[in-house]
Specification:
Layout: H1 2-9, E1 19-25, E2 28-35, E3 38-44, E4 47-51, E5 54-64, E6 70-81, E7 86-92, H2 95-106, E8 125-137, E9 140-153, E10 156-169, H3 178-182, H4 184-207, H5 211-219, E11 227-232, E12 235-242, E13 244-247, E14 255-256, E15 260-261, H6 268-271, E16 282-287, E17 290-297, E18 300-306, E19 312-319, E20 322-327, H7 334-347, H8 352-355, H9 357-363, E21 384-388, E22 398-399
Parallel strand pairs: 6-8
Antiparallel strand pairs: 1-2, 1-20, 2-3, 4-5, 5-6, 5-22, 6-7, 7-21, 8-9, 9-10, 10-13, 11-12, 12-14, 12-15, 16-17, 17-18, 18-19
């Protein structure tokens, strides 16, 4: 009787609401499951996208064409279908291979580096390219593309840096114009407003600059093709970025204009449920009676579940910022779930070395002397099927570098 009375007097433990979803945060993806067995959280260094109901991994691979005294490292962006396992190249840097070819013609007796050979610590010439993902919205990927070139002969050094933004269709690898996302009329209005904003900012900057500074500022032209796509409280935003170039100095960041709200076309309806509401410090997603909360704490974010009675349940700490949630509901079939489990197991084996491969490439020196022999304008990438299975690729696998776009600065 005493034991029964004690049991009856014990407080009831409220179970966490049932939920099953993927969280895209930082350069990682987390799988959260809440069921009768409890709350489970698993994270891996992998970037996922859902296109037409299928899950795809986005990853970059270094494209190395180096020589003993010349470093040439570009990058390629791939999309891998998790169910089929095949990878398709959707973006390739063409600047570095062209410069490497020019170097080979100028130095016919110099052999390329072998797989296990290292370049000199201070090569006389180098060219590196880097692809950074800024955001994924359905099939559309916003990116920032950097080229860094340097060369030196004795004490004389020269450098060249270039940066631009863009959006590509991960299904085809084709570059996307703003009109394809928001319609012709809305695109013309946004582009005109962006050009006007830059004109005013340019005149203001030039007024207080030196003669040389004024000349450089006035030479920067607005480019409607250089933009990225994002969302604030579920509302689509376009951010125009001015393609930047510099010589003799450090790498240049992309100068961005203030994000401008636009009205996306029908494709946005499938994307909106993945996007959060609220500021970066407290983001929320609601689906039925379940609310997911991402609260920034230090360098990360605390993930919580909230039920219909506003009871909160701690899930765990994850990377920040938290960008998207992909709900795993009844539309996700058994084959896709199996593919997700396999992909999470594979991604858990990615080494820390591979995760920083992109940073290594950016830190390397660049090449200027050969720039005169090749155009620096990136060519349109062409998608082409590669051998089945990620392990058949001859390039190292690297999770994509993901960076949250900065708010408007110009």
């Amino acid at each position: 009787m005493l034991l029964l009375a004690a049991a009856c007097g014990a407080p009831r433990v409220t179970p966490a609401p049932p939920a099953d979803f993927l969280v895209s945060a930082g350069d990682s993806t987390y799988w959260v499951t809440s069921d009768s067995a409890g709350l489970k959280l698993r994270g891996v260094p992998m970037m996922l996208a859902r296109v037409d109901g299928r899950f795809h991994e986005l990853y970059v691979a270094d494209d190395d064409h180096s020589y003993p005294d010349a470093l040439f490292v570009g990058q390629r962006l791939y999309r891998r279908d998790l169910v089929r396992g095949d990878s398709v190249e959707i973006m390739i840097d063409t600047v570095v291979p062209r410069l490497a070819l020019a170097y080979a013609k100028a130095h016919p007796r110099e052999a390329p580096l072998g797989p296990n050979e290292d370049a000199n610590d201070d090569p006389s010439a180098s060219a590196t390219a880097d692809i950074e993902l800024l955001g994924v919205h359905g099939p559309y990927v916003s990116f920032e593309y950097h080229v860094d070139l340097e060369s030196h002969a004795g004490e004389r050094r020269s450098s060249y840096h270039r940066v631009r933004r863009g959006v590509l269709d991960s299904r085809t690898g084709a570059p996307v114009r703003l009109a394809a996302l928001v319609g012709e009329a809305a695109a013309r209005a946004a582009e005109a407003a962006g050009e006007k904003a830059w004109s005013g900012a340019r005149d203001s900057i030039a007024a207080g600059a030196s003669e040389e500074g004024r000349r450089r500022v006035m030479a920067v032209a607005f480019d409607a093709r250089s933009f990225s796509f994002e969302a604030i409280d579920g509302v689509p935003q376009v951010t125009f970025a001015l393609p930047g170039e510099s010589r003799g100095g450090s790498a240049v960041p992309a100068a961005t204009l203030t994000p401008r709200a636009v009205q996306a076309t029908a494709w946005w309806g499938a994307v909106k449920p993945e996007l959060p509401h609220g500021p970066d410090s407290l983001r929320t997603w609601t689906r039925g009676a379940v609310t997911v909360v991402a609260r920034e704490e230090g360098d990360g974010a605390r993930l919580l579940l909230r039920d219909g009675q506003r009871h909160e349940f701690r899930v765990g700490m994850i990377a920040a910022p938290v960008q998207r949630i992909m709900w795993l509901d009844s539309t996700v079939d058994a084959e896709s779930r199996k593919a997700l489990r396999r992909a999470f197991s594979d991604a858990a084996q990615y080494s820390e070395t591979s995760r920083v491969a992109a940073a290594r490439a950016r830190a390397a020196a660049g090449l200027t002397a050969l720039a005169r022999n090749a155009s620096l304008a990136p060519r349109t990438p062409v998608a082409r099927a590669l051998p089945h299975g990620p392990r058949t690729l001859h390039t190292p696998r690297t999770p994509c570098t993901v960076r949250t776009p900065r708010r408007g600065t110009a």
